[in-house]
């Protein structure tokens, strides 16, 4: 029997119409259509943090070597940041993962178009926003950083 509180003026009832769009799913990534576990599932915040730390240490090593020979780009801290941005953009664009992601079994995927490449502008925006720290530290109900929401990407396992 039809819902007595609705009339034809209300129009058709759309499934899921009254669900809270900000309510968390049963597991991280459910709303994105990702599996709960295994390859293709969202990577944990701890794993993503580990990947960023690995990338920072790689860039720190390169920066120490670079600043031993030249101070053209500034001190070691500035050179680490410059190298980290370059590493994030190039590896994100070409391989959809940084060396830290590779070592920890993760990668960056677009969630708006399945199977499509991350692309240059997404790699640039993700890296620059991650470098600002705040967007990466603020996460949504799925555990994605605001930099991933802004670029339509997610860091997945596999």
Distinctive features:
two-stranded antiparallel sheet; 158 residues; single chain; mainly alpha; 46% helix
Provide a quick synopsis of the model.
By secondary structure, this protein is mostly helical. It has helices at 45-69, 76-95, 99-103, 120-131, 134-137, 146-151, and strands spanning 106-110, 153-157.
Radius of gyration: 20 Å
How would you classify the helix and strand content by structural class?
Answer: mainly alpha
**Could you state the order of secondary-structure elements as H and E?**
HHHEHHHE
What fraction of residues sit in β-strands?
5-15%
Our count of domains comes out at: 1
What can you see in these coordinates?
With 158 residues, this protein is mainly alpha-helical. It has one domain. Helices cover 46% and strands 6% of the residues. The protein is built from six helices and two strands, in the order αααβαααβ. The chain has helices at 45-69, 76-95, 99-103, 120-131, 134-137, 146-151; strands at 106-110, 153-157. Strands 1-2 form a two-stranded antiparallel sheet. The protein is elongated, with a radius of gyration of 20 Å. The protein starts with 44 loop residues before the first helix and ends with a strand. The mean pLDDT is 85. The chain crosses the membrane at residues 52-72, 78-96. Residues 1-22 are annotated as: Disordered.
What's the helix and strand layout?
Blueprint: H1 45-69, H2 76-95, H3 99-103, E1 106-110, H4 120-131, H5 134-137, H6 146-151, E2 153-157
């Amino acid at each position: 029997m039809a819902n007595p509180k609705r009339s034809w003026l209300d129009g058709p009832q759309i499934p899921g119409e009254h669900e809270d769009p900000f309510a968390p799913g049963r597991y991280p990534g459910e709303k994105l259509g990702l599996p709960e576990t295994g390859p293709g599932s969202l990577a944990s915040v701890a794993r993503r943090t580990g990947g960023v730390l690995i990338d920072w240490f790689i860039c720190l090593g390169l920066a120490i070597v670079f600043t031993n020979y030249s101070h053209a780009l500034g001190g070691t801290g500035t050179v680490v940041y410059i190298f980290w941005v370059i590493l994030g953009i190039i590896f994100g664009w070409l391989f959809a993962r940084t060396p830290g992601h590779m070592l920890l079994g993760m990668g960056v995927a677009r969630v708006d178009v399945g199977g499509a490449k991350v692309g240059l502008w997404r790699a640039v925006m993700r890296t620059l926003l991650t470098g600002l720290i705040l967007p990466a530290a603020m996460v949504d109900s799925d555990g994605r950083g605001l930099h991933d929401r802004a670029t339509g990407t997610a860091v997945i396992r596999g």
